Amino acid sequence: MPLQPLPLPALHASHAGSWYRAANGETEGLSKGQAVMAAADTPHLIVNAPLIATRLGYPDLSGLDLLELFAFVHPAKFCVPTPKGLAHALDLEEPEDGAQVPEFLQLAATQLLEHCEAEDWAEREGAWSVLQSLAKLRWAWAPVVAPHIRQPKTAEKWLFSKLPEWQEAPERPQPAQLTLGEDRILGQLEELTGAAAERREGQRDYASAVGTIFAPREKKARPHVLLAEAGTGIGKTLGYLAPSSLWSREAQGTVWVSTYTKNLQRQLRAESRRAWPEERPDGSRPVVVRKGRENYLCLLNLEDAVQGGFGGRAAILAQLVARWAAFTQDGDMIGGDLPGWLGTLFRNRAIKSLTDQRGECVYAGCPHYRKCFIERAARASAQADLVIANHALVMVNAARGRDHAQRPTRIIFDEGHHVFDAADSTFSAALTGQEAIELRRWIIGPERGSKGRRRGLSARLADVASYDEAGGEAIEAAREAAHALPSDGWLGRIAENAPSGEIETLLAAVRAITYARDESGAADAGYGIQTEAAGLEGNFVELAQAAAQALAAIRQPLIKLGVRLEAMLEDAPDWLDGQGRARIEGARFSLSWRIDTLAAWESLLGRLGGPADPEFVDWLAVERGDAREFDIGLYRHFLDPMKPFANTVLDGAHGVMLTSATLTDRVAEGRDWSSAIARSGAPHIEVQPKVAQAESPFDYASNAEVLIVTDVKKGDLAGLAGAYARIVEASGGGVLGLFTAIRRLRAVHGRIADRLARAGLPLFAQHVDPIDTGTLVDIFRDDPRASLLGTDALRDGVDVPGESLRCVVMEQVPWPKPSILHRARRAAQGGSSYDDRIIRGRLAQAFGRLIRSRDDRGHFIVLSPAFPSRLLTAFPTGVTITRLSLDEALQRVAAGVSCEPGIEREERPA
Questions:
Q1: Calpha distance 90→230 (Å, rounded)
Q2: Are residues 259 and 225 in contact, defined by beta-carbon separation less than 8 angstroms?
Q3: CB-hemisphere CA count at 13 Å for 554?
Q4: DSSP 8-state code for residue 448
């Protein structure tokens, strides 16, 4: 029997128009005003309410969002959050245009509700109980769904009682020392690729080179280091998984593969199934994905949320997350199997509130400790053959990991060109208002009247304070000293020139001097401003010294408390059981983290007014967004962050590889390995790394063209917007537009989105559409006629092969942002040649989005009247590079890729 439309009104809006369908009527087009009036009158079936609200300019839009119903019926199932994506997820015929969407929504709603009655509904368990809670919260869907879900005969288990517990396992012995033979590596590679796969010599040479990092280390603190550049399409993932899987099996050791983007983590997890089974015979997992704590669902936060800690729409979200938690693979909320769009449907920070953002975990003191997703992943990784992690986690784990046995010793850094940036972030110090207030809350507890489970040191270590008098005194001393840190409302007090406490007073002085010295013009444009921490007057230095003393007054009792906790573990009281010991161990780890942070802040303040330290770059800044201040602070970065990277990550490793398609700089003479070696950290531990390279098998010369458009003037927003619109129209969609400034991105999108939508060419944009970046890419990948505008996040790690991406457009040459940190590094590393290396790297990465498979074809367009010829080496050898007018470029885009003669070209230097 064919599906019957659910008899509820449905509404759809896009840049092309708005359409409405009554409960039992025909679809009609509406003006934007009529659509807003209809939406305000009664709840309608809609899909992706925040996006529809943006399209209508009606932020108060609410209704029966099909995505919320989908998340309830199919938790942990992937779905692109568009009518087309919903059709694919439900195996329904997709609507051909916007006018067909309202009826489709009625059919989709029927499909979802009927599925709730099906005997084979895989996610039935727990649905009835969660629905009762959602009904009390007045979830709009509750009365519609209730008749379709029968009450179970026996009471359903509470989520927190039915989640499985992780089990303790003995520490894995150190791996065997062995050398992998080339023949065995190549045999393993053939096994992974399959007998029918095309034999790729570049991949075979690459895999053989990777095998060298698994050889036994000859000297302490002298790991084997390999820098391997592998062109797109070489098959580098299987190229390094082959020797990794062979070594882990024979040596019984763990290999860590680190990425910079979540997209590559997902790809790696899929590829790893060729080498390892999903589970071992004993039920353990040989492959584990590890991320920072802030990525995983915190069960204690969830329990607090579902028991009243959240209110309004956030409480509904918590119930839907509870549904997901019962079916998730690993509890990963950021880039895992929780739909990326779920949090945006509720337009708040509730998703982050359900994770451990502030390091407040009480470890074994938590009632859900044995079921904790984070602890499960950490323990699984200690027994894993392959751990898939990210650069930041690997560095933090090496620098201050809780368990020495889990520190990585064989590491492959994929997307290796980002290791420098990740190290720069990891090993920096920032004494800002936002960071300081978080420290205050961690020590003192929540501000008066705030909700949530946040607890200060006194509450988390109450038993310690009552048992150990010295420990209790240390806690109280830290609490008292922490009142010098900023509290709620600190930004407002500083703006009113009424700071409270030594740190707020210093931040007020930072703000004043930064505004006084600013010459960038960024303040007038609404952007953040900064000034170097040099030539500071005596009064400022005195304020910094007073702030440093206040920080020292916090750090000293924390050190004393750490000593008392260590003594308690050595001479444990009778009441301290195993769970209590684990909780105190966790508290010691958290303390050491805060003590290190305070010491870094004191060091930063101690240098102010004195001679500059050549190893560091210090500056003051006021962070702003949309012309609104959101933070003020002092910053310290290593001039070369690869020095601490080498001392913490490389020093303790036995074998490390950095690999990427753009590891080296491309100059007229060929690959420049010197910059790649310098940015690997190897020179800091006196190791000469091996280098290897494998050329891409793709025929770039036949399948791609670089078009440099010379008649779109810089600063002409109308001309820029018109150029983007005409390129999208000529290409028929499939355009990835890359911008260097959010303001220009928003201006271009606002001028052309309606025009393109009326031509059946949807346009989406970062920083405009209320959708996370990963989901935007999913939408773009799903629709060959869609186009996507974005900034740096879309220049790397976006893998969209096939028809969905046919043209990449850069609005201008991607010059480095002229910051104080950049200026210092530029002066230390070659001046303009340093800039050129950065730009060529960015161009190469952006070009790499275009051709992702052998059959891909497309154009790479730069809207630059004066594109420097010295940057052309960023593009693959043989690719035709043409300087031409916009009209000529449009003709070439409309005609497809062609390298026939007839237009004057500038060949890329060989």
A1: 39
A2: no
A3: 30
A4: T
Choice between 397 and 836, residue whose per-residue pLDDT is larger? 836
Can you state the angle between helices 66-73 and 312-325, rounded to 10 degrees? 30
Give dist(CA 422, CA 420) in Å, integer: 6
Kindly indicate the confidence band of residue 906, based on its pLDDT and cuts at 50, 70 and 90: low
Burial class (CB within 10 angstroms; exposed 0-12, middle 13-18, buried 19+) of 57: exposed
Burial of 747 from C-beta contacts in 10 A (0-12 / 13-18 / 19+): middle
Judge whether residue 902 has pLDDT over 50. no
Q: Are 10 and 44 in contact (CB under 8 A)?
A: yes
Single pTM value for the model: 0.92
Give pLDDT tens digits for 47-99: 999 999 999 999 888 899 999 999 999 999 999 999 999 999 999 999 999 99
CA distance 208 to 193: 15
SS3 assignment, position 216: coil
Q: pLDDT at residue 648 above 80?
A: yes
Q: Which of 712, 700, 713, 735 lies closest to 907 in space, CA to CA?
A: 700
Check: CB of residue 351 under 8 Å from CB of residue 337.
no
Packing angle of the helix pair 886-895, 717-731 (nearest 10 deg): 20
Closest residue by Cα to residue 664 from 656, 675, 655, 653:
675
- Strand ranges, E, within 767-833: 787-790, 807-810
Cβ proximity of 16 and 757 under 8 Å: yes
Give the whole-angstrom CA distance, residue 30 versus residue 52.
14
Rg, the chain, Cα only: 29
For residue 585, what pLDDT band results from cuts at 50, 70 and 90? confident
Burial of 753 (0-12, 13-18, 19+ CB in 10 A): buried
* Side chain identity at residue 634, one-letter code: L
101-115 and 83-90 helices, crossing angle to 10°? 30
Count H helices and E strands in the chain, helices first.
36, 25
Q: What is the pLDDT of residue 784?
A: 94
Exposed, middle or buried by CB within 10 Å (0-12, 13-18, 19+), for 27?
middle
CB distance 55 to 13 below 8 Å: yes
Which percentage of the chain shows pLDDT scores above 70?
95
Q: Which residue is listed with tokens 């009243």?
A: 308
Angle between helices 538-570 and 502-517 (to 10 degrees): 140
- The residues near 131 (Cβ < 8 Å, ≥ 6 apart) are 72, 142, 145, 146, 149
User: Exposure string (b/e) for 347-381, b if CB count within 10 Å is 16 or more?
Assistant: eeebbebbbbeeebbbbbbbebbbbbbbbbbbbbb
List all residues 6 or more positions away from 349 whose beta carbon is below 8 Å from its beta carbon: none
Tens-digit pLDDT profile for residues 179-227: 999 999 999 999 999 877 778 899 999 999 999 999 999 999 899 999 9
Interatomic CA distance for residues 770 and 776, integer angstroms: 10
Element (H, E) at 309: none
Spatial separation of the C-alpha atoms in residues 45 and 204, rounded to whole Å: 54
- Inter-residue contact 725 to 753 (CB < 8 Å): no
Phi then psi for 881, rounded to 5 degrees? Answer: -115, 125
Rounded to whole angstroms, the Cα distance separating 232 from 700 reads: 11
Strand pairing partners for 297? Answer: 355
pLDDT at 413 over 60: yes
Secondary structure (3-state) at 28: strand
**Burial (CB count <10 Å: 0-12, 13-18, 19+), residue 846:** buried
Angle at 853 (CA atoms; ends 878, 903), nearest 5 degrees: 35
Strands (DSSP E) along 615-730, which ranges? 616-625, 628-638, 655-660, 665-667, 670-672, 690-694, 704-709
